[in-house]
Amino acid sequence: VGERQEEGKLVLIGESGVGKSNLLSRFTKNEFLHDSRTTIGVEFSTRTVQLDNFTIKAQIWDTAGLERYRAITSAYYRGAVGALLVYDISKHLTYESAERWLKELYDHADPHMVVMLVGNKKDLESLRTVPTEEAKDFAGELNCFLMC
Is the pTM of this model over 0.70? Predict the structure, then answer.
C-alpha cells in the first residue's frame, strides 16, 4: 500500500501579542519562549505529521499582527489552505478584531479555506475576558472551527 504525501500552507493571523509566534515555536520545535519578541513581517517553519499512511508537510507562516506590517503580511495569505485566527483569552480587544482579520484574510486568499478561531493563553484562565460560550457562538457565525 503506497503512502500519500501532501503539502499545505497555513497562516497564523491575529493581533500583536496574542501568542502566534509561540504557537508556531511550540508546534514545530516544542519550545516555549517566555520573552518572545514582536514578529516583523513574516516568519515560517515546517513540520511533517504522519497520520496512518498519510504524510502531511505543513508550511506554517507566522504573520506580524501590527498594523504597519499589514500590507506585507497579507501578501502571504495567498495559496494558504488554512488559517489559525488567534486571540488572547485575557484581552477582549484581540477577540473583537477577529471579524476584521477574517475579512482581510478572505480579501487576499481563498474564502473557502479552513479557518480555526484559537483562544490562546490558557495559562491566563483566571484572567479570561472572553467566555467560551461566546467564542463558540461567534465561531459558528463566522463558519470557523474553534479551539479555546
Answer: yes
